């Protein structure tokens, strides 16, 4: 057989490292060569430079695609492992159906630059806005990395966003960074349930309707910044959407453009609705899933630039210091009861962006911190330390005390 291209190697490579252990590229190349039935001559065939085997080079390129998609990470020169995000892709009965998703996510992340320091909310630049649709009675929840809408919501609350793959109907014109809203169709609680941004342009994949084998459907990848479950939460209901024409909200199509003036009003109403629910997006750019070691700081190219954190280091930090903010002493459980139990952010004393990959001592290097103080540390693009924020808070309190006195 011919030597496979990098894309078909992506899922087998992800499966190869499914146990979470660290492997070398050469280990993977030897294993995959057997899986693909390569002959000895095919294994040894060299690139024109004669410095590397073609197959090993393609395994390296597949690794690069998976890394750009946030599904694998480097642990050293020529050494890699799956990320928790990558492990999630392998969940489910038919991971093979996720190959198009892997390709598009890698492409989307590869095209993105460092234009966003944090995932944007709303639509400050007034990019084109589109309406995607979902009819629960006809289709399951469409996220390759989540088993249900509640699972997607949990991921969003943990990380500040969740990635969805969604049908965009016949639309070919949705561009990267376009603002999108997800509309729940049907007679049972129709309305807006999610907002986010497009990570890629429309692409074709197998039709979402399993009764239509062999047919294709167009999809986009969406990074959702807000998501509500109509079964448990009050959504922005159809009857509250009196802006724009009735045909817009009664549409059966997905991927239609929302007129600019209507989009502005929709943003206003959506933001007001989220604030009413107490669910205005809080973007936890450093709250990502747990890892098996404390190696941190590998930079991932996603629509924002983020430095990856160790979940185990976070847990050990909390076990040692507790769940009170180390700056303002706020305790979520004391303020909100059961709903606030176990909730806190974690911040490095020495900022991650000051260095490359490194090992973290959870007790010496990390401190628990509430979202408000966390936001103040990173506000306006100029990051300060925990100690500097403590000092600032003390100075402001002293100043106010003098004024009152």
Give a written overview of the molecule.
This protein is α+β, with helices and mostly antiparallel strands. The chain folds into three domains: 6-95, Winged helix-like DNA-binding domain superfamily/Winged helix DNA-binding domain (Arc Repressor Mutant, subunit A); 119-277, ph1033 like fold (Roll), CATH 3.10.590; 295-404, no CATH class. Helix content is 35%, strand content 19%. It contains 14 helices and 17 strands. Strands 4, 5, 6, 7, 8, 9, 10 and 11 form an eight-stranded mixed sheet that branches. A three-stranded antiparallel sheet has the order 1-3-2. The chain has a two-stranded antiparallel sheet with strand order 12-16. Strand 13 and strand 14 (305-307) form a beta hairpin. Helix 1 crosses helix 4, helix 2 (25-35) packs across helix 4 (54-68) and helix 4 crosses helix 6.
Oligomer: single chain
User: Regions with pLDDT < 50 over 5+ consecutive residues?
Assistant: 93-97, 112-121, 281-309, 352-357
Span between termini: 85 Å
How large is the count of helical segments?
14
The CATH architecture designation of the largest domain is Roll
Q: Could you estimate the helical fraction of the residues in percent?
A: 25-40%
- How many domains? The number is 3
Nearest-angstrom radius of gyration?
23 Å
Helical/strand content category: alpha+beta
Number of DSSP-assigned strands? 17
Global shape: flat
Q: What percentage of the residues does DSSP assign to strands (E)?
A: 15-25%
What CATH calls the topology of the largest domain is ph1033 like fold
| CATH domain class of the largest domain | Alpha Beta
Q: What is the typical, i.e. mean, pLDDT? A: 77
* Biggest sheet overview: 8 strands, mixed
């Amino acid at each position: 057989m011919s030597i496979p291209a990098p894309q078909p190697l992506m899922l087998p490579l992800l499966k190869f490292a499914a146990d979470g252990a660290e492997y070398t590229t050469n280990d993977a190349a030897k294993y995959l060569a057997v899986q693909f039935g390569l002959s000895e001559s095919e294994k040894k065939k060299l690139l024109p430079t004669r410095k590397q085997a073609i197959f090993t080079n393609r395994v390296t390129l597949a690794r690069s695609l998976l890394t750009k998609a946030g599904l694998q990470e480097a642990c050293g020169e020529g050494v890699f492992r799956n990320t928790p995000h990558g492990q999630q892709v392998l969940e489910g009965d038919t991971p093979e159906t996720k190959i198009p998703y892997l390709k598009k996510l890698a492409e989307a992340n590869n095209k993105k630059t460092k234009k966003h320091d944090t995932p944007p909310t709303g639509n400050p630049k007034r990019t084109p806005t589109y309406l995607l649709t979902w009819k629960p009675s006809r289709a399951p929840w469409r996220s390759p990395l989540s088993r249900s809408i509640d699972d997607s919501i949990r991921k969003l609350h943990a990380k500040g966003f969740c990635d969805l793959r969604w049908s965009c109907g016949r639309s070919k014109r949705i561009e990267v960074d376009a603002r999108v809203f997800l509309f729940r169709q049907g007679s049972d609680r129709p309305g807006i349930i999610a907002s986010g941004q497009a990570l890629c342009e429309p692409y074709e994949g197998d039709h979402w309707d399993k009764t239509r084998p062999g047919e294709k459907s167009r999809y986009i990848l969406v990074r959702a910044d807000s998501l509500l479950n109509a079964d448990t939460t009050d959504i922005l209901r159809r009857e509250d959407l009196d802006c724009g024409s009735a045909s817009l909200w009664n549409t059966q199509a997905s991927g239609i453009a929302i007129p600019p003036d209507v989009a502005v009003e929709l943003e206003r109403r959506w933001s007001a609705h989220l604030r009413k629910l107490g669910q205005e997006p809080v973007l936890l750019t450093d709250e990502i899933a747990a890892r098996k070691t404390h190696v941190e700081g590998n930079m991932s190219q996603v629509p924002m630039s983020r430095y990856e954190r160790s979940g185990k280091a976070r847990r050990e930090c909390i076990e040692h210091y507790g769940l009170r903010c180390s700056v303002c002493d706020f305790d979520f459980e004391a303020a909100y009861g059961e709903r606030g139990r176990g909730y806190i952010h974690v911040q490095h004393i020495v900022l991650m962006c000051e260095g490359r990959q490194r090992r973290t001592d959870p007790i010496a290097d990390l401190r628990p911190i509430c979202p408000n103080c966390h936001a103040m540390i990173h506000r306006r693009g100029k990051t300060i330390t925990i100690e500097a924020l403590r000092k600032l808070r003390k100075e402001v309190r002293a100043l106010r005390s003098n004024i009152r006195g």
